[in-house]
Design a protein that fits this description.
Mean pLDDT: 93
Low-confidence stretches: 17-27
Number of strands: 2
Distance between the termini: 54 Å
Largest sheet: 2 strands, antiparallel
Strand content: under 5%
Strand order of the largest sheet: 1-2
Radius of gyration: 21 Å
Helix content: 40-55%
Shape: globular
């Protein structure tokens, strides 16, 4: 009996180790991770984010977008913040980020302020997560407790950034697939897309839509064409608000726009175009409370994507480079 039980117990122990390792990363993230090691962390970050948004309201959307683009590429590990060097290729020049991702100087300012109150304690990946939440709150959106305890990656992947972040040309099935690849559901996808209630897009990302697509409000098309020439290479970086109604307020107007065929990006309008997500868009357009509740839950789930914890990764001294 003893000899037959021994292999069983060994197998059981091995399975337990596998199970514990699979949940360990989430177990180590907590909303009070820095409560003793850096009690002034949250107000310090909030102050720096508030200062940046006071200077430029668009910065709130830019910081939120950095967090999205960080989490979608090998998890929320601060890899998007790493600069290219002669021996290192980061993610900043990947197609979704080149001439587009911004706010890195604000992250530098946040890191500098935090280092003054608790040097060597808080990770850049956590600072980005807090800054994203603070941006939403400052622009009128919901508040929630951010789970913390991430550590910073020592590597980055331009290839993964090119392949993992949904482009604005995506159709609905492609969007669902991109989100599914990081463990997020279609409901998460529709809720998180509501981040486009703030921020702006470049002409190069909506040119094809305003000149070629028919499921677009004609008055919006004409308005956008006035600042986005048909010819590629002309006015590529000209900006337009993703949400024409309230571009610097975090609300549910984005979904109202979709129902009126006023989504600026092709990928936006795909959420309300006769497909499986139409009913959810309509629900969010009717109830801001329903949207914000789901948005918060989805932000928390996104923040849980493959964090580095324990002895993995590092606490960067400078968010732009590994120690």
């Amino acid at each position: 009996m003893a000899s037959s039980a021994s292999p069983f117990m060994a197998t059981l122990a091995f399975m337990l180790v596998l199970f514990m390792s699979s949940v360990n990363c989430h177990a180590q993230l907590s909303t009070n991770f820095y409560s003793k090691s850096c009690p002034n962390l949250l107000p310090t970050v909030r102050s720096a984010v508030q200062s940046a948004i006071s200077k430029e309201a668009r910065m709130g959307a830019s910081l939120l977008r950095l967090f999205f683009h960080d989490c979608f590429v090998n998890g929320c590990d601060g890899s998007i913040l790493l600069d290219d060097t002669s021996t290192f290729t980061g993610e900043k020049n990947a197609a979704p980020n080149r001439n587009s991702a911004r706010g890195f100087d604000v992250v530098d300012n946040i890191k500098s302020a935090v280092e003054k109150v608790c040097p060597g304690i808080a990770s850049c990946s956590d600072l980005l997560a807090i800054a994203a939440r603070d941006s939403i709150v400052i622009l009128g959106g919901p508040n929630w407790d951010v789970k913390l305890g991430r550590r910073d990656a020592r590597s980055a992947s331009q290839a993964a950034a090119n392949n993992s972040i949904p482009p604005p040309t995506s159709n609905l099935n492609q969007l669902i697939s991109f989100f599914n690849n990081v463990g997020l559901s279609p409901r998460d996808m529709v809720a998180l897309s509501g981040a486009h209630t703030i921020g702006q897009a470049r002409c190069t990302n909506f040119r094809a839509r305003i000149y070629n697509e028919t499921n677009l409000d004609t008055s919006l098309a004409k308005t956008r064409q006035s600042n986005c020439p048909r010819q590629a290479g002309s006015g590529d970086n000209n900006l337009a608000p993703l949400d024409l109604q309230s571009p610097t307020t975090f609300d549910n107007k984005y979904y109202e726009n979709l129902i009126r065929n006023r989504g600026l990006l092709h990928s936006d309008q795909q959420l309300f175009n006769g497909g499986s997500t139409d009913s959810l868009v309509r629900s969010y357009s009717n109830s801001e409370r329903s949207f914000t509740s789901d948005f918060v839950a989805s932000m928390i789930r996104m923040g849980d994507i493959k964090p580095l914890t324990g002895n993995n990764g590092e606490i960067r001294k400078n968010c732009r480079r590994i120690n």
